[in-house]
Specification:
Blueprint (H helix, E strand, L loop, with lengths): L9 H13 L3 H13 L4 H21 L5 H21 L8 E6 L6 H13 L3 E6 L4 H11 L3 E5 L6 H13 L4 E4 L8 H6 L7 H8 L2 H5 L13 H7 L1 H15 L8 H24 L2 H17 L5 H13 L4 H12 L17
Parallel strand pairs: 1-2, 1-3, 3-4
Helix pairs in contact: 1-2, 2-4, 3-4, 3-5, 4-5, 5-9, 11-13, 12-13, 12-15, 13-14, 13-16, 14-16, 15-16
Bound molecules: cobalamin.
């Protein structure tokens, strides 16, 4: 008689976990994580080597339009429950100072920050996790009241960098050291360096940085002298007017847009706004790669939802024309056009967009 033995190789465990997310099976997902903990795998490894990569993969499935927004939401909720289960399993008494972990105002990606918070807690820090989108004024009064040793700020979206900078400066005025993390600062942290703020690639690096008070308290200066040209501020002031005129131009060039449903129109306006917000962020940190990476991402997303990139080409061209007296912005826009795939350039009719 043979007994079926459970395959516990990391790849099989990962696939089991991903399947439980796909099937929205919370119980199975928690079981997979508990199985690892029971087998002696450290709690921070379960968080960073199972939950984190699975969430990133959920993002890729959503980006390719293989998963709906609802499937992504269900998976994210389950990941959150798994993080709670892992934290409860490995209860650690705090023996170090208080760290406040918070998402920037307008930032709804709370799970990455929560993973960081839990790993710091596992290392003995007394962590207060404030969650998604914390308004700057509330964060400041919290820091004063609870005498935080440091604050860890999270951002997943590069377009929020100018805002992030204001929040970082406000924390510093309160004399609380700041460290930042999340893909919004660039996968290698290069935009955090521009803002002159210590950055950690992941939760483990954040824990190391927090133990190095000198690095935390003596960050390199910000490199933002280019802001003297006022292009960033000028673009932000003209945002509404630019979106309006780009929409009018697109509708004239592609009359099919006139038949869009309100939801499709909302998505188009939101895309036009995102283009400007990423352009503004690129101007803020003076790095064209921020904008070109976004354009490559946008075209892939639109393509998987049946919207031809020709509309992106037309929008970039339109913005270049209106912003002709902003040389840095025009340069970023031209570079953005240069990374468009050949099929995205031309005058094809936009197909009805997915939503
Ligand atoms: C879940 C999710 C959401 C959920 C978030 C819910 C929640 N409770 O977190 C919701 C639905 C709200 C959401 C909304 C949006 N999302 Co979203 N989302 C994701 C998704 C699928 C997973 C995020 C996650 O948990 N990742 C797992 C973590 C662990 O990975 P990580 O970010 O790399 O984190 C590691 C490090 O970066 C670091 N780290 C992260 N944070 C911090 C913080 C500190 C202090 C430190 C030290 C380190 C650190 O440590 C982590 C562990 O090692 C990602 C896909 C992805 N690849 O991440 C997209 C993703 C981030 N979202 C994306 C987008 C575009 C959006 C929206 C704009 C979509 C829209 N059109 O509305 C909105 C923006 C909302 C907003 N204003 O914040 C894009 C961003 C692309 C880009 N070019 O910027 C991504 C990459 C999806 C994709 N593949 O296109 N999203």
């Amino acid at each position: 008689m043979t007994t079926a033995t459970r395959d516990t190789s990391p790849e099989t465990v990962y696939q089991d976990y991903l399947r439980s997310l796909a099937e929205a099976d919370e119980h199975a997902a928690v079981e997979v994580a508990r199985g690892l903990l029971d087998a002696g795998v450290a709690a921070d490894r379960v968080l960073l080597e199972l939950v984190a990569p699975a969430q990133a993969e959920v993002g890729e499935l959503w980006a390719r339009n293989e998963w709906s927004v609802a499937q992504e939401h269900a998976a994210t909720h389950i990941s959150d429950r798994v993080v709670a289960a892992v934290a409860a399993y490995a209860e650690v008494r705090p023996n170090r100072a208080r760290i406040v972990v918070a998402c920037m105002d307008g930032e709804w990606h709370a799970l990455p920050a929560r993973l960081v918070a839990e790993v710091l807690r596992l290392r003995g820090w007394q962590v207060t996790f404030l969650g998604a989108s914390v308004p700057a004024a509330h964060l400041m009064s919290y820091l004063h009241r609870y005498d935080a040793y440091a604050v860890a700020l999270a951002s997943a979206l590069p377009m929020r960098l100018p805002h992030a900078h204001r929040m970082i400066e406000a924390c510093r005025r309160s004399d609380v050291p700041v460290l930042v993390g999340g893909r919004g600062f660039g996968m290698d942290g290069r935009w955090a360096r521009r803002l002159g703020v210590p950055w950690a690639a992941n939760a483990v690096a954040a824990a190391d940085l927090l133990s190095d008070e000198r690095a935390l308290r003596a960050p390199a200066p910000a490199e933002l002298t280019h802001l003297a040209d006022d292009e960033y501020a000028g673009l932000v002031n003209r945002r509404g007017e630019l979106i309006e005129s780009a929409l009018a131009e697109l509708t004239q060039r592609y009359p099919a847009i006139g038949d869009y449903t309100p939801a499709q129109l909302d998505s188009t306006i939101s895309d036009l706004g995102h283009i400007l917000d990423f352009l503004a962020a690129a101007l803020y940190v003076d790095d064209g790669s921020l904008f070109t990476e976004f354009i490559e991402w946008l075209v892939t997303i639109l393509d998987s939802r049946g919207v031809p990139g020709a509309t992106v080409e037309a929008s970039l061209e339109h913005y270049s024309r209106l912003l002709h007296d902003f040389p840095r912005a025009v340069d970023h826009l031209q570079r953005g056009r240069a990374v468009l795939p050949a099929r995205a350039v031309g005058s094809g009719r936009p197909a009805p967009r997915a939503g």
